[in-house]
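Sorry to interrupt, but I need a hand with the structure work. Leave the record below and I will have a look:
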Amino acid sequence: MASGQLATSPITAAHRRQFREEGYFILERAISDEHLGIIADSCSHLIDLMHYEMDRLGTDHIHISHRGQRYHIAKKYDQAPRLDEFVFSDLMAEICRATIGDTAYLFYDQYVVKSAEKGIKFSWHQDSGYLGFSHRPYVTCWCAVDDMTLENGTAFVMPFSTIGIRSLVEHIRDPETGDKVGYFGKEEGVAAIVPAGSVVVFSSLTFHRSGANTTNKMRRAYVTQYSSEVINDPDTGRPIHLAVPFLKGGEIVYG
């Protein structure tokens, strides 16, 4: 067994097959209580830091974050206490091995938070659509920090067999929200109605969206993305976002 590999993997042959054929799978209650606590505490810490930055800039809107409505706090895995313990955990290693293989880099991480009774929806898109150029698909791990329901704006994924698309398509920027949108059809997709501690795993080519939070509680998700190679900007040749080594030959090399 490789270093850092779980004695019993939560990922089955059926999960692997579903990822290949449909572009996603869901692991319910896969995150340990300890790691879930770290993720929740880190979320509060990073929202406070974002409010400070908004105040400094004199704005209520940074990129696609809107104060008191929706927060997308990106590339801060090393700015919150112990958050990297989860980002580079055995669970994330198992997911990478099952989806992108034995070589993995942390490509991106972000909190996606919808505030109570104000959280706005997020449009259908492929994560690869935010890059806008050809690259090897990476994997996204959408981690439920809270119990997820239709009412609090959970994520929806679109199976490959439903939409009939397995490649990158052109996305259009919504000037009101800053979202990039790649699908305008009527298919509803599959709702991730899951308890806290669950992980929705999907390809960067899988269309997904989320609804508005109509409840009286904040809805928090933490997203990590891993690539099988360093993804470089085609213009500069430098890495886009993060390029933190995680797995080499199936073994954890971070830290």
